[in-house]
Amino acid sequence: MPDRARTANFDETVRRFILRYGEAALTEANRRAQELESEGDSDGAETWRQVAAAIAAQSAPRTGRQLH
Q1: Element spanning 2, H or E
Q2: In angstroms, rounded to a whole number, what is the distance separating the alpha carbons of residues 34 and 36?
Q3: How far apart are CA 58 and CA 32, in angstroms?
Q4: How far apart (Å, rounded) are the C-alpha atoms in residues 28 and 2?
Q5: Can you tell me the distance from the alpha carbon of 19 to that of 1, in angstroms, rounded to the nearest whole number?
Q6: What is the rounded CA–CA span in Å between residue 26 and residue 68?
Q7: pLDDT at residue 3 in the model
């Protein structure tokens, strides 16, 4: 899959995950990462850590001035 398509797919997955789990999305993504890690699936766990990082980045307060 080309990088642009992979990025779009990842972004859509994160967006839908947030819509489904709301404020619990970050906790749920971290839970899934830990679960997969404990089962020995380090690739799957890494994917969920990336999802968690994307959720955290979207949830972080934005600084700077508002553009008009």
Answers
A1: none
A2: 6
A3: 19
A4: 28
A5: 25
A6: 31
A7: 78
Token pair, residue 19, equals 């819509």
Torsion of CA 37, 2, 9, 39, to 10 degrees: -10
pLDDT over 80 at 5, yes or no: no
Opening angle at CA 31, ends 50 and 11, nearest 5:
30
Span 20-37, pLDDT tens digits: 999 999 999 999 999 999
Domain spans in the chain, listed from the N-terminal domain onward: 26-59
Helix (H, G, I), strand (E, B) or coil at 22: helix
- Alpha helices for the chain (secondary structure H): 3-21, 25-38, 42-59
Nearest to 2 by CA among 58, 10, 47, 15: 10
Single-letter residue type at 58: Q
Which 3 state secondary structure label does DSSP give 64?
Answer: coil
